[in-house]
Amino acid sequence: MPPPNRESPVVLIERRGRLLLGALRPPKGRKIRFLGEGNESLQITAERILHRFGPLSSRDDRGLRRALRGFREDAIAAAAATDLRRVWEWAEADRGYGLLELAAAHDEGDDADEAACIRLFGALADDQILFELRSGKFVKRPADLVEKDAARRALEAAKAAEDDALVAWLESAEALEPDALAPRGDALDAARDWALRGEDGGGAPRGRAIARRIGAATADEALAVLEERGLLPRDVNELPDRLGLPAMLGRREAQAVAELVDAAPPAAGPASPSHGPPAFAIDDAETDEVDDAIGVELTAEGGVRVHVHIACVAASIEPGSVLDASARRRLSTVYFPGGKLPMFAPSLIAGRLSLEEGGPPRPTLTGIFELGPDGTATAPARFVETTVTLRARVTYEETPRLAASEEPFGRLTAIAHALRERRFAAGAHAPDLPELRIRMTTAADGTRHPETYRLLPTTPGHLVVSELMVLYNRELARLLVDAGAPAVFRVQPQPIDREALPADDDPLRAVRMRRLLPPASVSLEPGPHRSIGVEAYVQATSPIRRYVDLVAQRQARSIVRGERTPPHDAADVATVCHLVASRERGLRRAEGDRIEFLLLRSLERRIGQSLDAIVSRPPRPGERRGHAFLPEILREMAFELPIDAGGEPAPIELAAGQRVSLRIAAVHPRRRQHTFTLETEGDPS
I need a labelling partner for 674 at 20 to 30 A (CA). Which of 91, 194, 278, 417 fits? Predict the structure, then answer.
């Protein structure tokens, strides 16, 4: 039998400056039990009661709380007929009033009935900016605070309306009309900011709330929705925003760039005229920042004299300058398919730093190396300051013809082979593994799509450039060590287990080599770099693209000039070393993450198709998931076994190295998720 209804008086009390609505339960001794409309359950004395209303009837506490919430809602609805501001204007400053007194003032009488008190309570509960509760009394708030809070309330209401309108539009199938989102501008900015920057965005709380209302639990899911609705470009790159990479120059940086581009070219060193054989650069066809070039001449002993020219950025960018600080903050150029974030402004690169074909001579720090036919040095390496104008630019694809038909490039190619063999004999192993490249192509409808292709860096040009850059960096490291100049060295002391090297014809060679090669690190002390096969190594051949190369170039240039003190002291180089160690891996990971996203985007267009694969890690007994290498995309990807009639993984035995076919079952680029399933004979898919 259900318990009988009980009547409980409705009361108001004050708690920590807040007005609480509740009801009274039978007392226990001197204490009265107060049951709030929320989860409050308090023991109070009668003196704490600010006002009593009539009773409510309920069977239990849950029903009483439900009745209290209804009481509040009814009171707020009834308050529509109450002009609370008129009561505020009537009230005197710094004087406290009870609820009954304020209700009587509103009705302009000496007393107020129950209904008037309920209406006034509803007005105070709905609008808490005109009066504050102080020591059990309602006190008129100052006019300036009231107006400030009223403006804040109006702004919050407008923002809520914007958010509601944006959410309603995003959840509808309505097409985007011109200016349709204008009233939702701030809401849209917050949603975009959250999607692009995540928790680091200034509008994160608001943007996150909007995203969750449309079912997007993460920033990446919000990105997908906004892309789908055309509110962000398709395949938008969020990584620069999330990594805090500056995409634009500040005002001071832009002004410094303009002044430097317009300034006279830097003067050559005191004993550094332009000299040597004609210089040519070997690069990809799309390269627009040329920071290295080669000049080569034959020697009577059957060897070559090679001039390796590196753009002397140190001649233009002073340590501690505005542009130096900007480059240090960026640390390196970050490359993404279809775009990049350069370390220096493109106008500065083109107008001052990059080596130019047929253009004005640009300063370089040149290494001169005399090499015999077997790659041994026939004279000590020298570094000098020069100025260089490129005679020609050559693409990698053009170098096989040069190596076969033109001297001295043919002999230089043979000597580059000898240099590599000497490094391998010293313990190096730098395999010529193919690389996955992605280009953005434009379809007939104007949309852009990622397209994958493989690049195998095995042309004579790749060999020559690779070996001469290693030679330059090795000899520059030796120059810095001999002079005792602080520098950031690349070290990799762990030798490669040559017994574990996969054979050249191993179908899983790319996977096994990447697992085998130990990582390199940076150090203030010189040490061996085993995978390159040198005893000391710095990076100095890309000062337009990497800040650490610029630091090494400045140190070496000061030695070449005979200066007593290098531009960067030990403490400053240690700071640079820390920056490289803490941030460089993240920048490279950002580049890799962008490539993985675009790779998945390209696979998304091929759902249902099959790719050839080679099992690299078979599923364990009883498990469904394994891994395979897919030569077409040069990736090791997870795959799943088909499910049998009983819902268990099909009993298929696989071995490492076995060739299989995998079907692209599902791809979610923004979540970085994919599903490949093993195809079997008779598979209907």
Answer: 194
Residue with the two structure tokens 């350069």:
342
The pLDDT assigned to 685 comes to 46
Structure tokens at 342: 């350069």
Cis peptide before 408 (omega within 30 of 0): yes
What is the model's pLDDT at position 244? 77
Does residue 117 contact residue 21 with C-beta atoms inside 8 Å? Answer: no
Q: Which two tokens stand for residue 11?
A: 């009361």
Contact yes or no for 40/20 (Cβ under 8 A): yes
- Residue reference for tokens 């020559």: 464
> Checking phi first, is residue 520 left (phi over 0); if not, alpha (psi -120 to 50) or beta?
beta
Distance between CA atoms of residues 64 and 77, nearest Å: 20
Burial of 446 (0-12, 13-18, 19+ CB in 10 A): exposed
Tally the residues of the chain.
685
CA distance 454 to 108: 87
What is the rounded radius of gyration, in angstroms, for the C-alpha atoms of the chain? 37
Q: Tell me how far apart the alpha carbons of residues 350 and 630 are, in angstroms, rounded to a whole number.
A: 40
Nearest to 462 by CA among 403, 514, 511: 403
pLDDT of residue 271: 45
Place of tokens 């039978």: 26
Q: Chain-centre distance of CA 386, in angstroms?
A: 39
Q: Can you tell me the distance from the alpha carbon of 260 to that of 351, in angstroms, rounded to the nearest whole number?
A: 9
What is the C-alpha separation between 117 and 134, in angstroms, rounded?
Answer: 19
| pLDDT score, position 178 | 45
Closest CA relative to residue 611, chosen from 570, 651, 665: 665
Beta strands in 500-582 (DSSP E): 521-523
Give the integer Cα–Cα distance in Å for 531 and 437. Answer: 24
Other C-beta atoms lying within 10 Å of the C-beta of residue 139: 16
Angstrom distance (rounded) from CA 516 to CA 225: 41
With contact defined as beta carbons under 8 Å apart, do 628 and 660 qualify? yes
Q: d(Cα 101, Cα 107) in Å, to the nearest integer?
A: 10
CA distances from 250 to 89, 94, 254 (A): 51, 52, 6
**H/E run at residue 118:** helix 114-126
**Rounded distance between C-alpha atoms, residue 209 and residue 190, angstroms:** 10
Burial environment of residue 427 by CB neighbours within 10 A (0 to 12, 13 to 18, 19 or more): middle
- DSSP output for 189-233: HHHHHHHHHGGGSTTHHHHHHHHHHTT--SHHHHHHHHHHTTSS-
DSSP 456-470: ---SHHHHHHHHHHH
Element of type H or E holding 453: strand 448-455
Tell me which amino acid residue 633 is. Answer: I
> Quick one: which of 526, 519, 521, 520 has its CA closest to 487?
526
Q: For position 447, what pLDDT does the model report?
A: 78
Per-residue buried b or exposed e for 110-121, using 16+ beta carbons within 10 Å of the residue's own CB:
eebeeebbbbbb
**In terms of DSSP H, where are the helices of 379-436?**
399-405, 409-425
